[in-house]
């Protein structure tokens, strides 16, 4: 095992990040190399910019020594000494349910939410009130007072536990993220000032994976996942948060599923490599649509799927044919190019396992005494009647696709009750 003398400085807050000498971003995106023997920085120019797609500056210690005619001795391998004790990882921390509920502003309409949430206002302008309301409900899009008009994208796992919330500010007219802030991304667990918080991130939208009937689509940004879910509802859309956040820990929940990756422009090669690394978890396919359609200017700007989708009316999208392998004309509308075939899923002949899980779940909880809004069209008032009638229908029509909505409604109710602890 070779121990490197010069390493990138570990992250210990924004004081350990600097302005990149290449792209000169106002935000601190540059990591410096340090000498592990002295703890000092090697040189202000020796480091790496984390804006991989848009900058890519990386000046290594070896290059620095060569450019300055300084001798550089490669460290010799040292004998490996096994550590006598490996501490167990700390259990993950979770956001209190009260904080989560308060951010959702449950008792007001989506139009009222839009007054204090710029991203929701953009969704209303793009899709209308009804669709925007469905998106807010489906992804639990919330509001933060950290910045005026800021949005919270909650990370909720399949157990209904809130891992953290990502706070960002968007333009209500363009839907673009506001990057002029000193810290364009902030976190709820930091805002709560919990120094012992053990963060274990999950996929944004992971709570939707309780539905096992659909294939999964992964994008980088939360905004793109929300928007794409309207254009392509045959997928469950989730986000990893950035180009480098596609990893085994976040994707472990996808075991055995069919997944399509939609990287931003300039991210195709990196995610193609990652797809191979993660192939033991799921069946991964990487979409190359954007790489083929993009102009050089769009590649430099790092366009993502949402930037193309919002150019077209979502009602015009007809999903029937597989994605073409031919090069589409540059001026051809995206609606005529993106024809994504839903991967063939094994159709279950029996829902016995799902019915058994639901029966055990509802038998083991205290049902709410107040009405609960399941979705835009359904409000449940008599829970025992609703649950038993649905379970009875499923038992009598086990595996018949016509009755799949009964299963979906019970699974949705389980998800709502798990997240909202009544």
UniProtKB/TrEMBL annotation:
Domain of life: Bacteria
GO molecular function list: type I site-specific deoxyribonuclease activity
Name of this protein: Type I site-specific deoxyribonuclease
Species in which this protein is naturally found: Aquirufa nivalisilvae
Domain (DUF6371): residue spans on this chain: 117-265
Keyword Transmembrane helix: no
EC number in record: 3.1.21.3
Upper classification of the organism: Bacteria, Pseudomonadati, Bacteroidota, Cytophagia, Cytophagales
Keywords in alphabetical order: Hydrolase
